[in-house]
Write a structure and sequence with these properties.
The protein folds into two domains: about 200 residues, inorganic pyrophosphatase (n-terminal core), CATH 3.90.1640.10; about 120 residues, Roll (Diaminopimelate Epimerase, Chain A, domain 1), CATH 3.10.310.30. The chain has 13 helices and twelve strands. It has a six-stranded parallel beta sheet with strand order 3-2-1-4-5-6, with helices on both faces. A hairpin with a 4-residue loop joins strand 7 and strand 8. The N and C termini lie far apart (about 40 Å). Bound molecules: guanosine-5'-monophosphate (5GP) and manganese (II) ion. Manganese (II) ion (MN) binds next to loops.
């Protein structure tokens, strides 16, 4: 089924804004870049505004440096006066942080493309939501393929779009191993490779860029692992001083949670990170545990097996106790 209303909104408008969540990942940046390239190919004015800067390991996707970090004074009128705003890879206004009031006040049609749980249709004018999809990038791939089919097989996806979509899917599937990775994912990936992409090069751009400090941080993280409830819960805490002493920052923890989940007994893994603004909680679980329900107890959310929350101004020691206590009932 073709999403005709979204296609019409694209064709009949000129001013577009794209955004995604705070601390963007490969899926958010890849999805933004792919959709932006498509809109540009149609001659549209399109901008990408994000609350956070693009992590260094994803700047290779933004060849034209089109992504801008949101600046209220500079960008608010563009948001207020846009025709269409795409919100990608999050269904929560809270996660676009300071852009939220302007998006909500904007005259623009708000279109959501996302794969997270907890979506409220009343907040958007149009949407494509598929919580079974492993990545927003995969949903966008299908959207572009539908457009290609409806236009008699005309090519819509370009090599740079394919690169962005591949990266989105690679990163959100944990390099093709998480639960929602299926035959369709691999079929899509096989098609994307026909655009002349090289898996090793893309993997290297994203992941083979660690500093020695990051490995030392990982060492601390591994040393700090605590097990509870017969090893069903595995968690680790990183403090501000751990980042300072290893010359890293809170973005360096990407992928650490998979080490918790590599423990045979672990059913739930939690990474607790002390940041300047508060405590970041990152949850992972094995199939039957609803980590997102635990995240919700801290005003967060996400997917069943990967979720998170951010507790503004939270005290890390109190939270460690509270989170681990609340975790017990999800392990029954
Ligand atoms: P990560 O642990 O990699 O930061 O996030 C994993 C998933 O949890 C993300 O894809 C996102 O769905 C969700 N998530 C992370 N942080 C937050 C948060 O602060 N609030 C909400 N609602 N979801 C989050
Ligand atoms: Mn995603």
């Amino acid at each position: 089924m073709m999403n005709r209303d979204i296609v019409s909104l694209i064709n009949n408008n000129q001013e577009f804004i794209l955004t995604s969540h705070v601390n963007p990942d490969g899926d958010s940046i890849g999805s933004e870049i792919a959709l932006h390239l498509y809109l540009k190919s149609l001659g549209k004015n399109a901008g990408i505004l994000n609350y956070s800067p693009t992590p260094d390991n994803y700047t290779f996707l933004d060849k034209e440096r089109v992504i801008e970090q949101f600046d209220e004074a500079k960008h608010k009128d563009r948001i207020l006066n846009a025709d269409v705003i795409f919100i990608l890879d999050t269904n929560e206004f809270q996660r676009v942080r300071t852009l939220a009031p302007y998006i909500q006040a904007s005259k623009a049609k708000k279109i959501l493309i996302d794969h997270h749980l907890g979506f409220n249709p009343e907040l958007f004018d149009e949407y494509i939501v598929d919580t079974d999809s492993p990545a927003t990038g995969e949903m966008l791939y299908r959207f572009f393929k539908e457009i290609e089919a409806s236009e008699g097989g005309k090519k819509v996806i370009t090599r740079d779009m394919a690169l962005a979509l591949y990266t989105a899917i690679m990163t959100d599937t944990g390099s093709f191993k998480f639960n929602r990775t299926d035959e369709e994912t691999h079929t899509i990936i096989a098609d994307l490779l026909t655009y002349g992409l090289h898996p090793y090069d893309i993997y290297s751009e994203v992941y083979n860029n660690a500093t020695l400090g990051r490995l030392h941080l990982l060492g601390r993280f591994l040393n700090n692992i605590t097990l509870m409830y017969e090893g069903k819960l595995a968690y680790s805490v990183l403090l501000q001083k751990d980042f300072e002493e290893t010359s890293t920052d809170e973005y360096a923890i990407e992928g650490f949670s998979s080490h918790l989940m590599s423990l045979e007994t672990a059913e739930l893994g939690i990474v607790m990170t002390q940041t300047k603004r508060g405590v970041k909680l990152s949850f992972r679980s094995k199939d039957k545990v609803f980590s997102n329900e635990l995240a919700k107890e801290f005003e967060g959310g996400g997917h069943k097996n990967a979720s998170g929350a951010f507790v503004v101004g939270g005290d890390i020691l109190k939270l460690e106790k509270e989170v681990t206590e609340k975790a017990e009932k999800y392990l029954k």
